[in-house]
Amino acid sequence: MGSDGVRKPRFLCLHGFRTSGEILKTQLHKWPQSVLDNLDLVFVDAPFPCLGKSDVEGIFDPPYYEWFQFNKEFTEYTNFDECLQYIEECMIKYGPIDGLLGFSQGSILSAALPGLQEKGVALTKVPKVKFLIIVGGAKFRSPSVMDKAYSSSISCPSLHFIGETDFLNKYGAELLESCVEPVVIHHPKGHTIPRLGTLLSYYIFIFVIYLY
Q: What is the mean pLDDT of each run of 10 residues along the chain (212 residues)?
């Protein structure tokens, strides 16, 4: 609850590939406390231990986790259904969950979940996702997932951070085409959670608090 007794919007936070919930929490410390204080953020680890080298070794301490596994072309996925079930279990355990906040692999999942929920193939036991905050996002490339996740537009409000030098930059732009009136914040950095100045903090505050 906030100081005025009103429940703050609760976001389930999905971290990047081969990182962890604790690492994402640390990465979000770049954001002003005035923003974080207005959100109820729930950080969880992905269900599968890291099966290879993590890009954050030497920067953040282990353990590291991954949401699912995939081939080089990102068109075939292993343990994907188990991942979806696990996210739903987290939403039940920590609910009510209002929105999803994702970075990298977590953002790809977050952006696909409203469509999968609408088609009845995921999150069938929890309320509809109301908000998305997507940092370094993209679409799934498997036709079997794309046909369900993006067959209709993502209608819930979505806030997207796209880095100018992010290797997923063009894929993040493609994701916007599937969203209804997305709010987009461009930043000069790469595949990272950017620092927020006063103006960008204001955007997040308006996006989440006003809509909530």
A: 70 97 94 85 97 91 96 92 97 96 96 96 96 94 92 91 92 94 89 77 62 56
pLDDT at 8: 87
Q: Which token pair is 171?
A: 């894929």
- Residue 185 · residue 176 · CB < 8 Å: no
From CA 68, how far away is CA 45, in angstroms rounded?
A: 12
Domain containing 119 equals: 10-211
Q: Residue 21: helix, strand or coil by DSSP?
A: helix
Asked whether the whole model's pTM tops 0.70, one would answer: yes
Q: How many CA atoms lie within 13 A of 155 on its CB side?
A: 6
Q: Is residue 126 included in any domain, yes or no?
A: yes
CB 140 within 8 A of CB 108: yes
What is the number of structural domains in the chain?
A: 1
Report if residue 143 sits inside a domain.
yes
Residue 32 CB: number of other CB atoms within 10 A?
17
Grouping H, G, I as helix, E, B as strand and the rest as coil, residue 29 is helix
Q: How many Å apart are CA 99 and CA 159, to the nearest integer? A: 11
Question: What does each C-alpha distance from 9 to 184, 199, 207 come to in angstroms?
Answer: 20, 21, 11
Rounded to an integer, what distance in angstroms lies between the CA atom of residue 121 and that of residue 108? 16
| Strand partners of residue 184 | 160
